[in-house]
Amino acid sequence: MKNHLFRKMSVTLLSATMLAAAVPAYAAADQVEVLVNGKIVDYGAVAPFIEEGTTLVPMEPTLKALNISADTVKLPTAPREINGESYVPLRAIGEAAGFEVKWDAASYSVLLVSTIPTEDGARGFLWEVVSHDGDKVYLVGSMHIADDSFYPLHESFEQAFAESEYLGVEIDVSKAADPEVQKLVSSLGMYQNGTTLKDHISEETYTALGEILKKNGMATNALDSFKPWVAETTIATLQSMQAGYEAQIGIDLYFTQKAAERDIPLIELESYESQLNMFNGFSKELQEFTLKSTIENYDSLGETVDQMAKVWKKGDEAGLLELIGEMAENEEYNQAMLVDRNIQMADKIEGFLNDPEEADYFVVVGAAHFPGEDGIVKLLEEKGYDVVRK
Q1: CA-to-CA distance for 353 and 160, rounded, in angstroms?
Q2: Confidence bin at 276 (pLDDT 50/70/90)
């Protein structure tokens, strides 16, 4: 069985650029909400309800939200007439129309995501925030590593980027090989006191790490100078590359290169120093645990990244919530990786929205930062902004 924390660390690929998003406001617990491809269905005066475990929805507004007509779907049961309104089982009508239907207990919502492939490119995660004076910030939930199957992106990404005068990113990934960045990696990621990795982790973990390095044609002591979080990142990257995923094809670098071509300013929401200090600040126990978990599940990493890639390309919010939900199980990890950073990034995005210059911003950060109670979308909504999935 896969270790849950291994899944959490794998979701780093959706949350931290250095180491290689939105559900609208939650519904009250007594009223079920329906979301189709991330957008809440407006039922007006009528409302869905749950009866004996089945969600029943008004038929006409549901068909409209699914963009289908009554004669294109075959239901297992006839609609029920309630107070003059025709109600149908949501799962039945959703699946018949080609949607994946999932129940999200935390938000008391039913999430429907289209499973019908299109030729319009990968859907991904894109939202639009409009400032009080009309300027826009486009939010892109990135996957920091990718392969050729991610492209072309859906045309909505290209249109939004073409409208924008600024690009915002977590960090400028094009500078990863710069001497200053490499020096920073060395100073924070390597032991400076004469000790080695072997002195800081168990003999069992150290031996297992050596076996993986040997499989990859490296010396068993190749990472002795580095701390556990660097070792974990290294072997995860090795396996991801073997599975065909690379940061050079990631969503971040794609738009960083396009910004350079257009000669538009690039703004970093974070820095290499802040991201490296975050990982370096993990407790000794968490660092070894994540390293051990990745080692134990090394052969399954490619499958996990495949799953994340599928979620991203489909723009599957329910799947994204499922993948990152496990992060909250470890308070230290979740607080550092998401909660604290989400607050800081939401504040900077609000600054873009309040920029007196008339300009639109295109902001690309890991997809894991957007959904949920602690996500950037919810934080911006609490600040009074409308955030709309595109």
Answers
A1: 16
A2: very high
- Cα 326 from chain centre: 13
pTM over 0.90: no
| C-alpha separations of 25 from 82, 107, 377 in Å | 28, 9, 8
The vertex-88 CA angle with 82 and 94, nearest 5°, equals 155
- Indicate the helix (H) or strand (E) that contains 17: none
Token pair 């050729």 in the structure block, residue: 148
d(CA 194, CA 178): 26
DSSP 279-339: HHTS-HHHHHHHHHHHHHTGGGHHHHHHHHHHHHHHT-HHHHHHHHHGGGGSHHHHIIIII
Over residues 203-258, the pLDDT tens digits come to 999 999 999 999 888 999 999 999 999 999 888 888 888 888 888 788 998 999 99
**363 touches 7 (CB < 8 A):** no
Please give the single-letter amino acid code of residue 243: A
